[in-house]
Amino acid sequence: MTATLDSPSDHTAPVLDQHDGAPPDADGKAKAKARLGKAVIFALFAIIGADIMDLLDATIMNIAGPVLQRDLGASSSALQWIVAGYTLTFAVMLTTGGRLGDVFGRKRMFLVGIGGFLLGSVLCSLAQSSGELIGARILQGAFAAVMIPQGLGMLRAMVPAEQMPVVFGIFGPMMGLAATFGPILGGWLVGADLFGLSWRAIFLVNVPIAVVALVAGSRVLPHDELRSADGERIAKPKLDLVGMLLATAGVLMLVYPLVQGREAGWPAWMFGLMAASIPTFGVFALHQRRRNNAGRDPFVVPTVFRKRSFNSGIGVLFAFGAAMSGVFFVYTLFLQVGLQYSALHAGLTMLPWSIGTMVSMGISQGLMPKIGPRRTLQGGMLVMAAGTVIAAVLVHAYGATTTSLTLIAPLLVSGLGMGLIFGPIFGTVLGDLDDAEVGSASGLLNAVQQLAGAFGVAALGTVFFDKAGAAMLSVPAAATLVFGISAAVLVLAWAVAFSMSKHTKEAEGH
Q1: Sheet strands (E) in 202-303
Q2: 3-class SS of residue 227
Q3: Contact, 288 vs 302, CB < 8 A?
Q4: Same domain, residue pair 176 and 285
Q5: Beta carbons of 345 and 335 less than 8 angstroms apart
Q6: Could you tell me the CATH number of the domain that includes residue 402?
Q7: pLDDT of residue 137
Q8: Which residues contact 507 (CB under 8 A, 6 or more apart)?
Q9: Shared-domain flag, residues 294 and 307
Q10: SS3 content of the chain, % helix, strand, coil (to 5)
Q11: E strand intervals along 92-170
């Protein structure tokens, strides 16, 4: 099955299975649209499957620590790296992964990423030592960084602009469910000890998902082709190796301390490493400018930074991602450390958040055409901030006597806000970009998400532990403080969003 790509300015759906290149008649067009619907559905299964594997493997390991210590004799440092090795590699390589899709083809790199992730998952399940498991986790993170940035560009090639809000709207609930059920699934798999696999079953869950994604992706994803804003085919860029190394070094200098700083006690050299990332990014920017002026392909397409929605959207995404990650992290600590809930109980307590997200995703699709994507996004920021404030008030009032029932209202409200944010944010940030810019922008977008998450956990986690004290005697007070700070950050994101474009064709469906 083959697909031809339309130009960004032509919103006609791409026609599948037109082997002779002749325009189809009316009946042919109707059939093509029907086939397109099926193709998009299978493409979504493949791309969402990849995202779910990434999200599960980024969160599911937190629950298996005690079992890993017993089975593999893993030290505390090794356990830390089993979790952080994946996150660090993924964050550092995301920009590179996005650019590789531009250079070698998004479909090709997506399938390569899934295949490598599948291999890494199998190697994780076969690991006989903590060192082997850390190596396999790093391999997983590297291939995840190759597969994840390709999805948005491929969907844009398959889906008419007016249907993109629906496509973006599917991701939020699915990711919310994966984030919520990941720890629940992990706890069940470890506890059930299916076929004597224990923690190894956590990684084998990826095998059927990866196989389905490979089969579906190879059949329905569009062939790799880039077009300019006026619809002309353009040649694929060449890889800027120097730019790739500079970008990777800069991100590594910034992300490594954020991921490992709190556990290491924030030694001075970590702050020096973060400071050194600034001149490294400066050299990278200078190299990109010179390479672009010389007519050579840069690592990051500079024109993405001339787009108002992209620049301001990156700032909004960072603030939102930091607040969201910090809130999730502190909720987990409050429930499991402060209230002594099991991982399963804590995961079930968080379900109202996912339910709220799913409900508001549908609401956002009706709001965007009426009030615009920016106002929908800003409304979500305020609703989510309100839910976080309610949580702060209730936890402050009830303290250690807080129950799952007490938290239903703030979790539901926060989820409703997050769904309103997820609906328009990706379409708004990427909606004004050309096809040739999407690979770089997608990699940057995902890298910013990871960086924001690491920053949120590091910064708000530090505040939480400082307030809770070494003996963790003031957990409710610490959670209250962090919830308040997170709400303030969300309000800041609401203010920054005023600099975003009010109207983008893909976010609004026009």
Answers
A1: 226-227, 233-234
A2: strand
A3: yes
A4: no
A5: yes
A6: 1.20.1250.20
A7: 92
A8: 164, 165, 368, 373, 424, 427, 428, 431
A9: no
A10: 80, 0, 20
A11: none
CB distance 492 to 397 below 8 Å? no
Q: Which residue is associated with the tokens 């076929």?
A: 195
Are both 324 and 470 inside the same structural domain? yes
pTM over 0.85: no
- For residue 49, being part of any structural domain is answered with yes
**Predicted local confidence at residue 443, as pLDDT:** 67
Nearest-CA neighbor of 369 among 95, 180, 164? Answer: 164
Amino acid 345: pLDDT? 81
Residues 310 and 445 in one domain: yes
Residue ranges, the chain, pLDDT below 50: 1-36, 505-510
- Three-class DSSP category at 233: strand
Q: How far apart are CA 406 and CA 392, in angstroms?
A: 12
The pLDDT value recorded for residue 76 is 67
What letter represents residue 245's amino acid? Answer: L
Across 161-186, b (16+ Cβ under 10 Å) vs e yields: bebbbbbbbebbbbbbbbbbbbbbbb
Whether residue 415 contacts residue 356, with contact meaning beta carbons closer than 8 Å, is answered with yes
Backbone phi, psi, residue 361, to 5°: -60, -40
Q: Is the dihedral of CA 321, 327, 332, 337 positive or negative?
A: positive
pLDDT value for 431: 65
